[in-house]
Design a protein that fits this description.
The protein has 80 residues and is mainly α. The protein has 2 helices and 2 strands. The chain has a two-stranded antiparallel ribbon. A hairpin with a 2-residue loop joins strand 1 and strand 2.
């Protein structure tokens, strides 16, 4: 006798697969234009806030690099 694998479709598996298809990242997929526009506006607001934070951090970084470069030159010079 040969060993043959028999696959049986179980209704539990089909329900799980449908549930996975219905949700992405814990959120239900929607095709409602109003809901999608609202989600887009929320994402854009978050992105703008992050862009502002990024600019502030870049300014701090440039200031820190400038002061580090300035203090590095003073240390390299021999005392008079």
């Amino acid at each position: 006798m040969e060993d043959e694998k028999v696959t049986v479709d179980r209704p539990e598996k089909k329900k799980e697969k449908k549930a996975k298809d219905k949700k992405a990242n814990g959120e239900e997929k929607t095709k409602d234009a109003g809901a999608l526009k609202l989600k887009l506006e929320k994402l854009e607001a978050k992105m703008m806030a992050l862009a502002v934070k990024k600019e502030a951090i870049q300014k701090l970084l440039l200031a820190a690099e400038g002061s580090a470069a300035g203090s590095g030159q003073e240390q390299a010079a021999p005392p008079a």
